[in-house]
Fold this protein.
Amino acid sequence: MRTQAWMAAAAAALLAGCATVTPPAGMVPGKFVAFDCPGGQDFQARFNPDGNTVRVRSHSGAAELIAQGDNYAGEGFTLTLKGADGISLAFGGKTLGRNCKRQ
């Protein structure tokens, strides 16, 4: 009986380790995707498969952003995924692009 309980616990741990996190905004885990921002600065973003960070590259620089609810922020950048401006990227409090769409 103990062997069965141990095997069940091991199987559950294995399955938990294989859980996937859904990438935000159509991003692909581990690959940069381009976002086009009308009238603003286009950028690229790469979702980390661990679900905790997104790497962004723009004309204003690059940064590793940490998850903060539905958004990501760090090193002066804020990537907003939901809101009145749709997907938007800001740096130093200044909006670089809003209503951005994945290319």
User: Anything to note?
Assistant: The mean pLDDT is 82. The longest strand covers residues 61-68.
